[in-house]
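Weekly sync, protein design subgroup
Attendees: M.S., D.O., the rotation student, P.L. (late)

Item 1: inverse folding check
M.S. brought a backbone from last month's batch and wanted to see whether the design step gives back something sensible before we order anything. D.O. pointed out we never logged the input encoding, so this time it goes straight into the notes. Structure tokens as presented (194 positions):
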């Protein structure tokens, strides 16, 4: 009887443990996805809205000034608006700003996105990398899905003034000759859970 009771207790305890463990992992992952999604959307929308306004006001040259002077700092501003433990950035294998070059596993993950794309796999909305205990990176792929992007990331050599302005600020620029539907890079949200 005593043995049966102990076995019941043990199995009850293991069931609880088993039920607890995945639950814990799931909520941390769920939180990662929620935070990743909302902060990457906030960044994409803020950049998109500003670019549209500048394009409408002063055309591509005005929009370029915005992208050169403010896109990077705006990313830091959006960073400040997000909760503590969340950091945002944009990365690309063929970057314009060297500060947007991928670090650690980021290049491998961008290459993995490229491989999937080459196999005609429908691009996943996001990927999550577990970096360390309680630290995750949420990756949202950025595709050239708008003709307007090509103005500054397409055949820019056709517009001499634009090309000159871009090279003045970014002498190491590699972010051109993209075509529609190419993978441009990713938004990376690094999330550190308490
Ligand atoms: C008016 C010119 C212009 C247009 C239009 C434009 N970009 Fe950019 N883009 C830039 C500049 C300049 C940078 C470098 C910003 C910085 O210093 O971080 C940049 C940087 C980026 C980066 C960060 C990686 C890198 O190369 O440094 C991504 C990703 C990106 N652009 C995607 C897009 C997408 C997607 C669109 C269309 C919605 C777009 N861009 C439209 C000028 C432009």
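Designed sequence read out in the meeting:
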């Amino acid at each position: 009887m005593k043995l049966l009771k102990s076995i019941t207790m043990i199995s009850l305890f293991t069931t609880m443990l088993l039920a607890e463990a995945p639950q814990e992992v799931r909520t941390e992952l769920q939180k990662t996805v929620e935070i990743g999604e909302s902060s990457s959307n906030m960044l994409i929308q803020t950049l998109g809205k500003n670019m549209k306004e500048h394009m409408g006001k002063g055309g591509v040259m005005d929009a370029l000034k915005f992208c050169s002077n403010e896109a990077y700092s705006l990313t830091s501003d959006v960073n400040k608006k997000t909760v503590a433990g969340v950091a945002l950035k944009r990365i690309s294998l063929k970057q314009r700003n060297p500060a947007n070059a991928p670090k650690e596993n980021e290049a491998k993950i961008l290459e993995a996105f490229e491989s999937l794309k080459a196999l005609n796999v429908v691009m996943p909305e996001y990927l999550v990398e577990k970096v360390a205990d309680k630290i995750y990176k949420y990756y949202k792929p950025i595709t050239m899905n708008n003709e307007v992007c090509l103005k500054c990331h397409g055949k820019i050599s056709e517009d001499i003034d634009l090309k000159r302005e871009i090279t003045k600020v970014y002498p190491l620029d590699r972010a051109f000759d993209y075509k529609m539907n190419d993978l441009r890079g990713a938004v990376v949200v690094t999330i550190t859970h308490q």
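Discussion: The longest strand covers residues 183-192. Confidence is low (pLDDT under 50) at residues 6-18.
Action: P.L. to compare against the previous round before Friday.
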